[in-house]
Specification:
This protein has five helices and six strands, in the order αααββαββββα. It is of the alpha+beta class and 149 residues long. The protein has a six-stranded mixed β-sheet with strand order 2-1-6-5-4-3. A hairpin with a 4-residue loop joins strand 4 and strand 5. Helix 1 packs across helix 2. The longest helix has 12 residues.
Amino acid sequence: MTSAEFSLSTEFKIEGITETSILRYFSTLNAGDFTATAALFAENGVMHPPFESGIVGRDAIAAYLQQEAQDIKAEPRQGITENLPDNYIQIQVTGKVQTSWCGVNVLWLFILNQQGKILDTHIKLLASKKELLSVRPPDKEYTITSEII
C-alpha cells in the first residue's frame, strides 16, 4: 500500500468498519475519482445502484459513476462485518447520500472476495415510495419498485 492509499483509507472513518477497500470506496467516490472506485471491484464485480440493473465490470462501473455520481456525497455512518463461507466477507454500511437536490438514507451491502475486492454491492435507498417520488430529480423518470425499503 502506498502512502497515498494509506492516507485515503485512514482519513475516512466508518464506525465498525476497518476494511480498507470499503473505506477507499467511500473516499474515492466522494473525491470523484470514479476510476479508483471502480478499481476496488473484482474484474467482473457488480454494482446494483437504485433504479438500475446490475452494472458489471470495472469499466462499466467507472462509466456509470462518471455519468450518475458527479454531485453525490456519501456520508456512511456505521457498518457491520460478517464472515461468509469460502472466506468471503459481507459488509453492511448505513448512512446518507446528499445530492444537489436531496438527501436520503442509504444501505450499502458489499460482498468482498478473499483478496478484499468487491464482488457485489447493492445500494438501497431507505425511504418510502412517497418520499422518493417527492425528491426525485425533475429531469429523470423512475419506476419505483418494491425493492426499495
